[in-house]
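Data card: per-record layout.
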Amino acid sequence: MMLGGYRGGAATDSDEFVADVRAHHAVLARLVRRCTPEADADDVMQESLSAAWRSRHTFDPRRGNFRAWLLAIAMNECRRAARRRRRHEMLVAALSGRVRHMRLVDGDEGHADPLGDAVERAIAGLPARQRLVVNLYYFVDLPVDEVARILGIASGTVKSSLAEARGRLREALGKEAAGHGRR
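The structure for this 183-residue chain is written out next.
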């Protein structure tokens, strides 16, 4: 293990980093699989390793061991994934008040998530800025202030765009549910 932290750039630093990750890969995988749904585990694992690589220069063996540092990064990624999932579920729940009956209403059991598909179609139909704001806030899990900085707009504009988007999504999903119920 590197005693002075990883400086990046030198081939030996990369080799040592990879060796350290390999030494703790099994415990890292167990942690991620215990803390995230199975469907998200591979993505969270990859994000954890990518974040560790990007932050390798911050590792300081005087503050703790490599395994603890790596697992702390993994826990942060697990929490980030959970927030993304909760936001997605909150959005679906908020929008599904009028469309609950769409779920497998025609016995379409071969299609696992008709409501999720309907939400995706409704999001695709939003104006560009609202679609960007919804995606950045609900699916990328960025706070309002960061969405505002990325898009170069005020935080209040992000909030009003989210509110307008939710209204449009409710309306679009209500129309789809009404059309689906008539079949």
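Known properties of this structure: Residues 130 and 164 are 8 Å apart (CA to CA). Confidence is low (pLDDT under 50) at residues 98-111.

See the next section for split statistics.
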